Amino acid sequence: MAIQALKGFKDILPGESEKWVFMEETARRIFRTFGFSEIRTPVLEKTDLFVRSIGTSTDIVEKEMYTLIDRSGDSITLRPEATASVMRAFIEHNLQGQQPIHKLFSIGPMFRHERPQKGRLRQFHQINAEYIGTNSPFADAELIYLLMQILDHLGLLEIRLRLNSLGCPLCRPSFNSALQGFLGERQSELCPDCQRRMSTNPLRVFDCKVERCQELLTAAPTITDFVCRACQEHFEQVQKLISGLSIPIHRDPRLVRGLDYYTRTTFEISASHLGSQDAVAGGGRYDGLIRQLGGADMPAIGFAIGLERMALLLSSQEEWINRPFVFLIPLGAAAREKAFSLLTILYKKEIPAMMDYEDKSLKSQLKRADKVKSRFAAILGTEELNKDRILIRNLDTQSQEAIPIPQFLDYFLERYLK
Ligand SMILES: [Zn+2]
Ligand SMILES: [Zn+2]
Predict the structure, then answer these.
(1) Is the pTM of the predicted complex or chain greater than 0.85?
(2) Ligand 2 centroid to 119 CA: how many Å?
(3) Could you tell me the CA-to-CA distances from 258 to 140, 248, 304 in Å, in that order?
(4) From ligand 1's centre to the CA of 41, what distance in Å?
(5) Which CATH number, 3.30.930.10, 1.10.600.10, 3.90.1860.10, 3.20.20.140, labels domain 17-171+227-313?
(6) pLDDT at residue 258, rounded to an integer
C-alpha cells in the first residue's frame, strides 16, 4: 500500500498553493510598508522555552505540544506558536541593544498535537508580527491598523474586531481572585476542565466550549471593573485611536487568549462566514515576556493570522489556477525547434508560457491549451514557418490572426503588461 501523510498534516496542492503565495506576498508587501523586517527561526526549540513563555497551565503546554526526546536525551518541541521563538532569537542575538524599536514578522508552520477535526490541523501556518520596544497606545493602534490592512488587501469583507484589555500584573490578581470567588460558589456546576482551571488559570474558563459553563459565565465579573488607572487610560487611548481610523470596535470583556503572557490590549478578528469560535487572527500585548525569558525589560505587542482559515475565506479554487498566457503549438519537427526558441524568449521576459514536445495533432494540442486555461494559442505549421508568420488564437474569444514572427514578442509584451 502507498504511504499516506500523517493524520492532521496536509499537502497544499497546485491550484491551492497559488492562494498561499498570494496571501504571503500580500502580507510581505504590507509589512514592508509598515517598516517590518522578516525574521526566520527554526521550527524546533528546547521544550523549556515554550513552558516558560506560554505557561504550564495552558492547554497548549498541558496537552498539545509536539514534544520529543532527541538522540542526546534533550527534550525538544516543534514550535506551537511563533512569539516565543522570535523572542528567544531576539534576546540571544542581542537585538535589543542595537535599536530601541523592532518591527519583526515571520511566516511559517506551527505544530500542535490536537484532536484532528474540521479545520484543525496538527501542522498549521501563521503570519506573525511582533512590535517590540514601545508600550505606547499608538503602537497598539498601528499594529491593529496593519493587521486590518493585510486582511483588506486579501479581500476579506465583513470582519469584526473584538477588543479587550487584560490588565497588568498590578491589577489582574484582584480580578483573578474575584473570578475565583465567583467560580468557587458554582464549582459543582462547572465542567471538569473548568474546575481544574479555576485554581490554575481562572481566566481560561472564558474559553470553555461547554454550553453550561458559558451560561454560568454570563454573570461572572469582568476584567473591565478591575483594571488599574494606567491600564484603563491605555485602553481608552487605544480605542480612541482605532475609532479615529474608522475601524468599528466590538468591546468584549470576555475575550481572553489561550496564552499566559498577554497583558493589556488583546484582540481578535473574526469573519462572519466562520463560526464565532473561529477567529482568523488575534493578538495582544505581552509587556513582560522578554524579561521573563531573560532579556531586557521591553514591552511588545503582536498578532498572528491563521492561514488555513484565511485560505477558506478566499474565493474558490478556480481563479487561483496558474494559467499560462501563451500556449505554443508547433506542427512538425522544424516548427518545434522554432517554437522552442520563441518559448524561451517568452520565459526570458517572464511571460507565462507552455509547450508540449510530443508529436500531437493540432486538435489535441488545442485541447491541452484549453485544459490549462491558456489565454492565447500560438500555432506554427509548415506553411506559417515558410512565410515567417505565426497564427495567434485568442482562446477567450476564439478570434485568430497571423502575425510576422519577428513581431511575436512585442505582440505578447503589449498584451501581457496591460
Ligand atoms: Zn493594570
Ligand atoms: Zn467548562
Answers:
(1) yes
(2) 22
(3) 19, 24, 13
(4) 32
(5) 3.30.930.10
(6) 67
